[in-house]
Amino acid sequence: MPGRNFLFIPGPTNVPQRIRNAMAIEQEDMRAIDFPKFTLPLFEDLKKIFKTKSSRVFIFPSSGTGGWEAAVTNTLSPGDKVLMSGFGHFSNLWIDLCQRHALDVQALEVDWGEGVPVEQYADILKKDKDKKIKAVFATHNETATGVTSDVPAVRKALDDAKHPALLFVDGVSSVASIDFRMDEWNVDLCVSGSQKGFMLPTGLGIVCASQKALEARKSAKLYRTFFSFDDMITANDNGYFPYTPATIFLRGLRESVNMLLEEGLENVFKRHNRMATAVRKAVEAWGNSAKGIRLVAKEPKWHSDTVSAIYVPEGFDGNEVVRHAYKHYNLALSVSLAKIAGKAFRIGHLGDMNEMMILAPITGAEMAMKDLGIPVQLGSGVAAAQEYLCSTKTNRLA
After folding, report:
1. Residue 1 pLDDT
2. Sorting pLDDT into bands at 50, 70 and 90, what band is 189?
3. CA 385 and chain centroid, separation
4. Domains, the chain, with CATH or none
């Protein structure tokens, strides 16, 4: 098919040319005497993306799932009680990972379309008089449902209960796209990945650990080798790694961090909100002509600025919309998973994204739905998004 594929899934995201250029280099010696001149500043600048001064960043050659495992195994012991909540495919996978590591998991089941149940967390933490809960987990952005949770509120629940549990945050599809504040929110472990807001191919699991988390590793009894913080620290302190690192990915990560800091994190967050709002305006317009089209996120407080999960009318298959768009329009949207499989489709709007780009998946989704008999009015979602983007435009050359 002539032309290029239009990729609008919530990861991997589009890789900017600057990052591709930075990665188009020869292999290098990861033990060269000048390698630390590259790695040590990278470790420090990554802390700026997490908005931390006191925490430590680890870079593993893995996906975000590897980051989850690193965070858990370096700080907890078999039988430790942890508080979690499942409200989508990925938050449930994190629960599964903790169960497989023989943790005592108290997992709250939450309606899909909502996020972390802060009020329930607060009640459970206050009742935990003996402080048996060792860690509290919060998925900042549930990629399967397009739901963002209130991490500061989880921290407040811990503080109000005067509870010492570690706070774990899944920031895989939020860090570098949605405002995240490691130090201000007193997060102990945050996990991210290279293929989302960092605009790289899949391949790096990035974990940020507080000093409290680093202290916890001294008594943690879960096994770890590949994901050992201790091994990383020993090597990273000198600018090296305990095993062969993904050097080309590190060069790309360096350029990614440069781009994020050049744009300014606050501008990055505003841009993501604007692109997401354009999609939400389109969904609202579609729903006016096709009853049943709506966001999976139940309320505006849950709206994600990185991915929108969109219900299709009853009797239609959201995953068929994805297949049709790919087959006929060379557009990659994302399928719905698990509990809502077939009931919805997803549009990823994170990473390297601007106005013209975000109009592409809106246009293609409209066409695919129309082809399949969903009674959307062609142009309705596109027009709604255009109206919003026009009314909020800024001078990019200013």
Report:
1. 67
2. very high
3. 24
4. 17-263 (3.40.640.10), 264-391 (3.90.1150.10)
Question: Residues 76, 80, 83, 88: is their CA dihedral positive or negative?
Answer: positive
% of the chain beyond a pLDDT of 90: 98
User: Cα Rg for the chain, rounded, in angstroms?
Assistant: 21
pLDDT average, residue stretch 262-271 = 98
Paired tokens of 304:
């994600």
CA distance 334 to 349: 11
d(CA 165, CA 136): 6
Type of residue at 62:
S
pLDDT for residue 397 is more than 90: no
Residue 22 has pLDDT above 70, yes or no: yes
| Separation of alpha carbons 19 and 15, rounded Å | 7
- Read off the pLDDT of residues 335-358 as tens digits, 9 standing for 90 and up: 999 999 999 999 999 999 999 999
Indicate the burial class of 321 (C-beta count within 10 angstroms; 0-12, 13-18, 19 or more).
buried
How far, in Å, CA of 197 to CA of 260, rounded? Answer: 9
The mean pLDDT of 379-397, rounded to a whole number, is 94
* Cα gap 300→323, rounded to integer Å: 29
Buried b (16+ CB within 10 A) or exposed e, 256-273: bbebbeeeebeebbbbbb
Nearest to 310 by CA among 363, 347, 364, 361: 347
In which band, very low, low, confident or very high, does the pLDDT at 283 lie, cut at 50, 70 and 90?
A: very high
CA-CA distance, 52 to 44, in Å (whole number)?
10
